[in-house]
Every structure is written in C-alpha cells, then in structure tokens.
Design a protein that fits this description.
Blueprint (H helix, E strand, L loop, with lengths): L13 E3 L4 E4 L10 E4 L2 H9 L6 H18 L3 H12 L7 H13 L5 H30 L5 E4 L14 H12 L3 E5 L6 H13 L3 E4 L4 H6 L5 E4 L3 E3 L4 E4 L2 H11 L3 E4 L5 E2 L16 H4 E2 L2 E2 L12 E4 L6 E4 L2 E3 L4 H13 L2
Parallel strand pairs: 4-5, 4-7, 5-6, 7-10, 8-11, 10-15
Antiparallel strand pairs: 1-2, 2-3, 8-9, 9-14, 12-13, 15-16
Helix pairs in contact: 1-2, 1-3, 2-3, 2-4, 2-5, 3-4, 4-5, 5-6
The protein binds 5-S-methyl-1-O-phosphono-5-thio-D-ribulose.
C-alpha cells in the first residue's frame, strides 16, 4: 500500500496519543506509510534498534515517551529503572538518547505521580526540540545565504527530529527565503536513509533535488557543483568534534579541499559536555549483514566479511560552523561550544 501524502503536509514521525507512542515505521518508507503503535519500553527500544525510529533528536523524544508508556503499565520505581536501562542501550552513538532518558528519570524518581511527572518531562523535551528546529532553520539559512546548490547526507528532516529537522530544516528555510537550485542527497549506504527518506521528504517539501551515490559526492564537490555541504550530527564533543552518519568525514575532506563551507546543524541536546573529544565517542558497529545486501537483495558473495560502522567523527577544525538552537559556533572549538551551552543554561 503506498499512501500519497499531499505535498507540504507536515511529517509527524512520532506522536504520543495519550496512551501509546505512535511512530511512522521508517524501515518501510518511501514505499509504505505505516504507523506503529508502541505500548512498552521494550517495543520502543526495539523500534529504535531496527531504525523504525531514527535520527538523534527523534530517538531521544521517542525514548522519553517509551519511559512514559512503560510507567503506564506499571507505575513503580523498578519499572522506571528497567525502562531507562532498556532504552538507553538501544543505540550507543547519539547522545540524545541518554540525554532524554536522564531527564525523564530525574523528573520521575521519587515522585508519587510517576507517570504524570515523566509525561510532563517528555512533553517538555519534545517542545524544546520543536523550537530548536525552527531556531536552527533560521540561523542556518542566514549563515548559508547565497548558497544555491547544497549537498546533504543521511536524513536530517522531520523524520529525524521533531519539527522540521536539523540540516534539512536549514535547507528548507534557505529555499523558502531565497530559493535553491538543487539539493544533492547522498544515498547513505547501507540503509539508504538518503535515497529512501531524504528524497521522500524533499518531494513533500517540493524542493528541487537529485540523488547521488555516496561515492559521487567528492568528485562533484571538486568540480564546483556544490556551494555548501550541510549535515546533521549525532554527538558533538566538548571540543566541537562531531560524530555523524558514516561518510560525513569524507564529505568534510572534500569540502575543505574545494574551499566550500562544511556546516553541521544540531540542537544543543546533541552536545555532550562530558565527552572531551571525538575519540571518546562510541561508534556503533551494526550487523555486517546490512552491508552484504541492499533492501534485502544480496549484493555480494554470501558470508563475505564486512565492517559496518554506522558513524564517523569529523574533527572540529574541519567544520566551518555548528548551527544550534542557541546560535552559531564559528569557528568550532571548545570555547564556542561552551558559549552555546552557556546560552542554553541561561534560557528561561
Ligand atoms: O543511523 P541513523 O539513521 O539514526 O543516523 C542519523 C544521522 O546520522 C543523522 O544524520 C543524524 O541523526 C543527524 S540529524 C538528526
């Protein structure tokens, strides 16, 4: 069943309906729009593990509601601990998961009204992420003014974060303000978040776009076909190093060589002040079977040994600017990242 969504209808990737967490199953897109109904922390953790729910800010929000749905089943401190543990271990790299779970855990611990306390915190986190998306969009569009041909990687839109997303929100806002000539989207092997999800979102946004294989990006950048590279992030270290979808580092190298801006967009919830440098970030290694196939079709000799790191780290010095909900860090270093976090701490 393929649902044809009217253009420009906002995409809502997860929503709490008062009882269950409902999530668009991203493993089925772009061919089928099916909503999952999730009623336990284990079900939410499983959906995050298999990337039915994905994207750093989105998995944080989903996990926060995952704690809520578990507490609705069993409103007890034991259940709170178990839910937080199960959800925290779903994926290791995006810090938003631990960030959101820690907040809900702290809000609910020791409270008689565990469910209400957890729900209020989950709703607050979701509202903050929505606002962050709009703020990043505005700051990023201003920063990138004049860029007409932008290249992006993985999926960073409404499927990856509440609201309009991160990097894709910046691109959409730039297009709304000034127009863009084209958005080049990388396939993002092995799970094809670019080919399946970003292209799907770009169609809904009605933005001119072209899909490229990952290995075409560096060459196109070198020939002058791209004005700026704009990507999201899964964890930003205190020194400004950024972990993002595997392939990001190669794009940064190509952008530096070509002398074009390499811009990262992410909410302050993706900054991990406890992580001093990118070398401390745990990079998720996923099932090698994902590399051996594409959309379930075998690609290579059965049983071929594969490596499947899901992310890589780009050093701060290679990033032109980090666009956050609390302003732009530029240059990207320990001082500018700290300044952004201090602004967040001072917000009302
Ligand atoms: O493995 P995924 O699909 O969850 O990876 C997501 C990304 O790397 C995105 O680019 C990222 O979360 C940043 S923007 C929301």
């Amino acid at each position: 069943v393929t649902t044809v969504r009217p253009p420009q209808t906002p995409v809502v990737a997860v929503r709490f309906d008062g009882r269950s967490l409902r999530a668009l199953d991203q493993t089925l897109l772009p061919w089928e729009e099916r909503e999952l109904v999730l009623d336990s922390a284990a079900a939410v953790a499983q959906a995050i593990k298999r990337l039915a729910i994905r994207g750093a800010p989105l998995i944080g929000v989903a996990a926060a509601y995952g704690v809520v749905v578990e507490l609705q089943r069993e409103p007890a401190e034991d259940a709170l601990e178990r839910a937080c543990q199960a959800l925290r271990s779903a994926r290791p790299t995006a810090v938003n998961l631990a960030y959101a779970i820690d907040r809900v855990h702290a809000a609910a611990t020791g409270r008689d009204d565990l469910v209400a306390a957890a729900l209020e915190e989950a709703r607050t986190i979701e509202a903050e992420e929505l606002e962050a998306s709009d703020r990043m969009a505005a700051a990023g569009a201003e920063l990138l003014s004049g860029a007409r041909r932008v290249l992006t990687h993985c999926n960073t839109g409404a499927l990856a974060a509440p609201g309009r997303g991160t990097a894709l929100a910046v691109i959409a806002e730039l297009a709304a303000r000034e127009g863009v000539e084209t958005v080049l989207a990388t396939e993002s092997r092995p799970l094809l978040q670019g080919a399946r999800l970003t292209v799907w979102e770009l169609r809904h946004l009605e933005l001119p776009h072209a899909l490229i294989v990952d290995s075409a990006a560096a060459g196109l950048i070198a020939t002058g076909a791209v004005d700026a590279v704009v990507v999201g992030c899964d964890r930003v270290a205190a020194n400004g190093d950024v972990a993002n979808k595997v392939g990001t580092y190669g794009l940064a190298l190509a952008a530096r060589e070509a002398g074009i801006p390499f811009v990262v967009a992410g909410p302050t919830s993706t900054i991990d002040a406890h992580c001093q440098a990118g070398s401390e970030i745990k990079i998720e290694e996923r099932d090698p079977g994902e590399v051996r196939q594409a959309l379930s079709a075998p690609l290579t000799v059965a049983g071929t040994a594969c490596r499947n790191p899901a992310f890589d780290v780009t050093p701060a010095k290679m990033i032109t600017a980090l666009v956050t909900d609390q302003g732009v860090a530029r240059p990207v270093n320990g001082n500018t990242v700290r300044a952004v976090l201090e602004r967040r701490a001072r917000r009302p």
